[in-house]
Amino acid sequence: MSIIDISTGVTNARVETLDFDQVDSQAQSLRERGVRLYPNRKPSRDLEPEDVAINPHGTEARVVLQEQNALAEVDLRNHAPTGIQALDTTDYATAGQGLDATSDGKIKIRNHPIKGLYQPDQMGAYAVGGETYYVTANEGDGEIEELVSFGARSFAIWDSAGNRVFKSGSEFAEIQTERIPTGCNSDDEANTLDAVSNEASPEVEGMVRGRINGAMHAFVGLGKPGGVMVYNIATPENARFVAYFNNRVFELPLQDPDGTPNTDAGDSGPEGVALIPRTASAIDAPMLATGTSSTAWPNCTCTAAWLKEPGGPR
Predict the structure, then answer these.
(1) At the N or C end, where does the chain have fewer CB atoms within 10 A?
(2) Torsion sign over Cα 138, 165, 75, 77
(3) For residue 128, is it within any domain?
(4) What's the CA gap between 92 and 104, in Å, rounded?
(5) Could you tell me what percent of the chain has a pLDDT over 70?
(6) Measured between alpha carbons, how far apart are the two ends of the chain, in Å?
(7) What is the pLDDT of residues 72-82, one digit of tens each?
(8) Of 250, 271, 99, 229, which Cα lies nearest the Cα of 173?
(9) Residue 279 lies in a domain
(10) Is residue 53 assigned to a domain?
(11) Structural domain tally of the chain?
């Protein structure tokens, strides 16, 4: 992990790199608490930072350790790691936590006797009532010899102590089944219904937070089968679905015969998500920008028009 000080300008940036050497002696304790570590390997050589979120006061950071299914705590005042929080697992056998685990051309969201590792990709921080909460987009990654799924096909909210206070469960899959019945669980490169149910769909990639009409919202990008989920997260323990945007046209091929992107097919594979505030927008309304890995250009979605309509989030 590196802390980069640009207070005196980018060309005069000062870089301080932090390591995890101090946790090597805690390897057994970390494993017992649920941190996923390779056997016979020091944590300082195994931990893989993926993303970072800083609390609103700028005093602490959480660093995603994706393959380890954990978050590292960093004191930004003293420039030092202070601990590692193991994330729990989602239980696909409980109500509201089902998944489609087979690619057989049919959408079947069911409970299964397996667990899912959260393994976040992107993460963000926000505060409610003086308490900091961390929102994670649970993509999944890694190699494990247990009956688990990589990623929880959802997003989750955690308090500063590492306790999960909300998870979307199977809502993404259920919403897509209703909204995009011909494209649910398609790959990001081909329009085949149910093609990646056994792999990682919905594949949760990017996430950004922003206030709309005073209320904090999360915008979650789904690499497979595409689109952005919008949730009102103003009350962390009771986050609620607001909208799903997906301009992908599943009836059209994503590529033209010459291999170039088919501009009529919409966008596929959003990875990065960014919210453009009204003050920086060209249309006098907030816009949501997505970086799409399976099309040749970034995109500013129709979210912008929706945000200023009466039916937009409050």
Answers:
(1) C
(2) positive
(3) yes
(4) 19
(5) 83
(6) 37
(7) 999 999 999 99
(8) 99
(9) yes
(10) no
(11) 1
3-state helix, strand, coil split of the chain in percent (to 5) is 10, 35, 50
Residues with Cβ within 8 Å of residue 1, at least 6 apart in sequence: 17, 18, 19, 49, 52, 63, 72, 74, 81
DSSP states of 46-85: H--EEEEEE-TTSSEEEEEETTTTEEEEEETTTTEEEEEE
Given the structure tokens 């995109």, which residue do they identify?
299
Contact present, 116 and 136 (Cβ < 8 Å): no
Q: What is the pTM of this model?
A: 0.84
Residue 294 is predicted with a pLDDT of 63
Whether residue 146 is contained in a domain is answered as yes
Contact 183, 249 (CB under 8 A): no
The one-letter code for the residue type at 248 is R
Higher pLDDT, 197 or 132: 132
Angle at 228 between CA 222 and CA 230, to 5 degrees: 125
Torsion of CA 161, 162, 167, 173, to 10 degrees: 160
Q: What is the pLDDT of residue 177?
A: 86
**Could you identify the residue written with the tokens 């993509």?**
139
pLDDT value at residue 285:
75
148 band by pLDDT with thresholds 50, 70 and 90 = low
Q: What is the pLDDT of residues 244-287, one digit of tens each?
A: 988 888 888 877 888 777 878 777 778 788 888 878 888 777 78
Peptide bond into 225 cis (omega under 30): yes
Distance CA 86, CA 149 (A): 17
Average pLDDT, the chain: 83
